[in-house]
Specification:
The structure holds two protein chains of two kinds.
Chain A (H helix, E strand, L loop, with lengths): L2 E10 L2 E11 L4 E5 L6 H8 L7 E6 L2 E2 L5 H4 L3 E4 L11 H11 L5 H11 L15 H13 L5 E5 L7 H16 L3 E6 L2 H7 L2 E6 L1 E6 L1 H9 L1 E7 L7 H6 L5 E4 L2 E6 L2 H14 L4 E7 L3 H10 L7 E2 L1
Parallel strand pairs in A: 3-8, 3-9, 6-7, 7-8, 10-15
Antiparallel strand pairs in A: 1-2, 1-4, 4-5, 9-10, 11-13, 11-14, 12-13
Helix pairs in contact in A: 3-4, 4-5, 8-11
Chain B lengths: L1 H15 L6 H25 L10 H8 L9 H12 L1 H4 L1 H20 L3 H5 L5 H34 L11 H26 L5 H8 L3 H12 L7 H25 L2 H6 L3
Helix pairs in contact in B: 1-8, 2-4, 2-6, 2-8, 3-4, 6-8, 6-9, 6-10, 8-9, 9-10, 9-12
The chains are: A alpha/beta, B mainly alpha.
Chain lengths: 311, 267
């Protein structure tokens, strides 16, 4: 494991910000933290980065426990993109990056800066003061700063917040590129579409862990597997046929049938055969996928249940 | 050391882009330097009343006659030398005034600009951060003090009685400018940086740091009234006390710098 969080809890006075959160991350994994404002996502990232100490529990990076004494050294393995870009406005892009290259004691700081500028397509803005950059460009510079020292663990707090769609897509592409380089990424976001596109696993949290699994597994766990079949005739006229075949969870909407199944791949041929035998003209068959938004909203609604959904 | 240099380089680069921050220091320096010229050169020249005509300043003449190197000064020159040397203490305020706003803004400014968290997420230690912040405020101020002192000595050489400028190049004067002044400035700046890491706005930090001006101003008044004279043993004692105070302030700064509070409680 590259990163392990065990029973992380953080209290601020009487308020519990993070409660008993545990997860393990593999090299090259993109792990998303999803949750409403105040759910403890940023606090979790700060604990992982060794910026604040957990009230109980521990974070392990590469087998070493993050403590007050080890945090400074272990931070060298982490790149943390904070919620705000946090650039020094009066300094140029290169000057901003140079300070961080030196803070990380990179042996060839200018070469590392050149690499980061190329990676984020910032070469032509290298000499511009940060204050002159657009929000999207500032975020790209902050990303360049985060990746400057080639960290094995990359923590991204709302990396696409406030970006235009094109910039957001570029950031997502970069995240996927980082995965291909076997970097481990922890992504805190409200953007469900982003999670859907890039995350290998999702931790839904609201102070406590609400659910942790792959997006696909969360869908199945919460909604079960379903097949959507469109026929020419009214769907309701085939409900009996399907019930006789053992498929009792059937919903209809005009010509569309939504059928709860155990295994879509195995059950689809049988269902189609029965429908055709009953005189149905099948137009389309596809697995029915609730969006991650539906999954998230369901989890948040049902969050009062004490047991977390976890594989 | 490399990390201190990196952050110090950033501080200095940032200041180069924001030179207006040193305007109060330059103003303080100009006022500090002008006052003794008015008292010792311009007012006597305009009124036609020489300093040596006043019996109140006999003590000054006697003090300077006692110094072998300055025995050759005229009566007027000896009194001028006394005045110019007394006002050197005021020159000590220049670095403090110059760097106070920089130091006061050092931590809270980073927090307000949202640049502190990325910085703390690097391997930079608290000691490295504090040293870089203090030096970032101190070095430009010291450069300013040296410049002011050079102008002051040049002004005295040009406008005062012949040989008076040598009174500013005695070990005592040089100790005030180059040892006591910087040590006092360092203490003030450390106090301001400590305050900057605890308070919620830069103004509070600046006011706390400025407390160091009080003993310096008191020393000036006591000197001018003849109650207190900065003798060599006294200067050695003050220097030792300032070294001890600076050591204590560094430790205090490390203890008071609470990353968690800074990140989670400041808004």
């Amino acid at each position: 494991m590259v990163l392990t969080a065990q029973h992380l809890t953080r209290r601020f006075g009487n308020r519990v910000a993070v409660d008993d959160l545990s997860f393990d991350l593999l090299p090259g994994e993109i792990f998303a933290l999803l949750g409403p404002n105040g759910a403890g996502k940023t606090t979790t990232l700060r604990m992982v980065a060794g910026l604040i100490e957990p009230s109980s529990g521990q974070v392990t990076i590469g087998g070493k426990v993050v403590t007050r004494h080890t945090a400074s050294k272990l931070r060298g393995q982490i790149g943390f993109l904070t919620e705000m870009p946090g650039l020094w406005d009066r300094l140029t892009v290169t000057q901003n990056l140079l300070v961080y290259a030196q803070l990380h004691r990179l042996p060839h700081p200018y070469a590392a800066i050149d690499q980061a500028l190329d990676l984020l397509d910032l070469r032509d803005r290298a000499g511009d003061p940060a204050v002159q950059l657009s929000k999207g460009l500032r975020q790209r510079v902050a990303l360049a700063r985060t990746l400057l020292h080639r960290p094995t663990i990359v923590l991204l707090d709302e990396p696409t917040a406030g970006l235009d769609p094109e910039s957001a897509r570029e950031v997502r592409e970069l995240i996927l590129r980082l995965r291909s380089e076997r970097r481990t990424i922890v992504l805190s976001t409200h953007n469900l579409d982003e999670v859907e596109r890039v995350a290998d696993r999702v931790a839904v949290m609201r102070t406590r862990l609400v659910a942790l699994d792959t997006p696909a597994a969360l869908r199945v766990h919460l909604f079960g597997a379903r097949l959507r079949i469109v026929v020419v005739q009214a769907g309701a006229s085939f409900v009996n046929v399907l019930e006789e075949a053992g498929f009792t969870d059937v919903r209809t909407d005009g010509e569309t049938l939504s059928i709860g199944v155990d295994d879509p791949a195995a059950d689809a041929p049988l269902i189609v055969r029965r429908l055709v035998e009953a005189g149905a003209s099948v137009v389309m068959v596809m697995p029915e996928q609730p969006s991650l938004e539906e999954v998230y909203l369901t989890l948040m609604r049902d969050h009062k249940t004490p047991e977390a959904v976890r594989s | 050391m490399r990390r201190i240099n990196a952050l110090l380089g950033k501080e200095l680069a940032d200041l180069r882009q924001n030179r207006a921050v040193f305007f109060p220091a330059i103003l303080t320096g100009v006022i500090s330097m002008s006052l003794p010229f008015f008292v010792a050169v311009f007012v006597p020249a305009f009124t036609g009343e020489r300093l040596s005509d006043s019996s109140d300043l006999e003590i000054a003449e006697q003090l300077y006659r006692a110094q072998p190197g300055l025995a050759a000064l005229s009566t007027e020159g000896a009194i001028q030398a006394w005045i110019f040397q007394q006002f050197l203490v005021l020159l000590v305020l220049t670095p403090v005034a110059g760097s106070m706003s920089v130091a006061a803004y050092s931590v809270i400014g980073e927090k307000q600009a949202r640049t502190l968290e990325p910085l703390l997420a690097t391997p930079l230690t608290t000691v490295e951060l504090l040293i870089a912040k203090v030096l970032g405020a101190l070095l430009p101020a010291l450069a300013l003090t040296v410049a002011c002192f050079a102008v002051y000595v040049a002004g005295v050489a040009l406008l005062a009685e012949p040989g008076v400028f040598r009174a500013l190049l005695t070990p005592a004067s040089l100790t005030i400018v180059f040892i006591l002044g910087p040590l006092a400035a360092l203490a003030a700046l450390q106090l301001a940086v400590c305050a900057s890491s605890r308070v919620n706005d830069a103004r509070s930090a600046q006011q706390i740091g400025a407390l160091i001006i009080l003993p310096i101003a008191a020393a000036l008044v006591l000197q001018l009234t003849g109650t207190f004279l900065l003798t060599a043993p006294m200067m050695a004692f003050i220097a030792a006390a300032l070294v001890a105070i600076n050591g204590g302030l560094m430790l205090l700064g490390i203890v008071l710098f609470d990353r968690e509070s800074i990140l989670t409680r400041w808004k």
